[in-house]
Amino acid sequence: MKNSINERRKTKRMELKGLIADIADRSWAFNGWIDDISPEGFKVSYLSPKFTIHSIKYVTAISEFQNIFKIIIKPCWNKKVGCGYYQEVGFKVINPPYEWSNFILDKRVLV
Hints:
- This protein is an alpha+beta fold.
- It has two helices and six strands, in the order H-E-E-E-E-E-E-H.
- The chain has a single domain (5-110), classed as Thrombin, subunit H.
- It has helices at 5-8, 98-110; strands at 14-24, 29-38, 41-47, 58-64, 67-81, 86-94.
């Protein structure tokens, strides 16, 4: 039997509200809400169903108050929600920048 996604993660994801991810593919930009994060990845909800999952790398800008993190990501899974009006997508962070890792560590200390 295949392990669940949570069992395969290196680190536990932390719930965090208020972050917005703007994700760019070759011709469009999509935005969604980040629900949970870890140094290695995050889940985006309320992402348009027009965002198609390819096994390519995407660029995202994640904004939080005065901080903007530009990160390379790769989708790992997706799930249609809200009768197909939206989707949730899990992303893996590729070579996370130092600032992102510090941001995650600071948030973990506060929780």
